[in-house]
Amino acid sequence: MKIKLNGLILISLIALWALPSANQAQNPQWKGKIATESGLKVIKNPDKPLYGEIKYELEEDLQIGKENDDHYIFQQITDVKTDDQGNIYVCDVRGARIQKYDKNGVYLQTIGKKGQGPGEFEMPFDLFVQPKTGLLYVRDGLRVKWFDKDGKYQKEVVLRSFPTQFSVDENGYFWLVMSRRTEKESLKALERVGTKGETLASVAVFPYVIYTKRTGENSMSSIMTGYEYDLQFARVDGNAFIYGYSDKYELNVVDRQGKGLFKMTKEEAPHGFAAGEVKGPAAEVLPKYKPFFYNLLTDDLSRIYVNKSNVLGTRGKPKEFDIYSKDGFFLYKTELPYGRQFSIKNAYLYARHILEDEGLEVVKRYKIKNWAAIKSSAEGAK
After folding, report:
1. C-alpha torsion sign, points 359, 77, 96, 71
2. Spatial distance between the Cα atoms of 378 and 29, rounded to a whole number of angstroms
3. pTM to 2 decimal places
4. Where are the beta strands (DSSP E) in 182-249?
5. What are 144-161's pLDDT values in tens digits?
6. Which top CATH class is 31-267+278-373?
7. Are strands 219-223 and 231-237 parallel, antiparallel or unpaired?
8. Any idea where the domains of the chain sit in the sequence?
């Protein structure tokens, strides 16, 4: 009996000793550093994500777009957003309209048409649906126009210069990346703008260099390579925004007043160009290194997706993303299907695709089957 008891005690001790190792395997430790620089918290991430690579298990469950029905034909899709009821809004820039569908893809209404009158569009490009009010905001050339939850035109504001990206904060103020030009250079500026078009805060300004050359006595030509360093930004939630300039892997999170909350970086060496990777005139004007990222995206759990793939160099291939928690910790690497990803919300991914056989533009919705298993925080970080 004593021998059996000693054996049981030994087995129990071994089991207890093994528990910490099992817990450590389940909860990997974050290997970065947290520092303070110029009074601002800096999350210095390692080159490897805390939870490694993850595959989003996608199942296509809806396609919107078909021939021979004007309600479902898109000339050029530039944005897709949803409201809290699951209704789907599709921005068609060439069609100069917004198409609204229910959660099953059934057509509900057309918002706007080609024109310059109230509620009409010249070049609608981006959408934003305010979660609390259901207000629909549309960036249309030099204007931002908004509509109530039933699609009725409310108001618009004229901007000082042409914006290239846009969102809205909790107070209904606009966040825009604005193009600027001085006598010496072109710039991109992230600004917070009021409902009358006034600048409330100039958050950040960066150069935007495009190669130009004289082609005649009174003419110039520009060459865009797709690898220009650019200012990218996204809304994290109604009270925070993230932005970065793609010449280095550094992203800044600010509050809705434009004040810095923290900075996040990642250890990553710059990437050069392989011989012959880019051909034609663009090859002559490439920067020394590729941009570290090409776009920023967030989901409704405020996870941050950093797009590492240039659409010009990855056509037909999945896009690579680094995924971060809302407080700046590097969680995962993943790939998402080729096509422009517009939003990730309520375990669904919405993207634009072109059906090669028909040449038809469509919106595809994918259910993310393992959504509940994807972590949103860095449990091992301190």
Report:
1. positive
2. 9
3. 0.89
4. 186-193, 199-207, 211-216, 219-223, 231-237, 240-245
5. 999 999 999 999 999 989
6. mainly beta
7. unpaired
8. 31-267+278-373
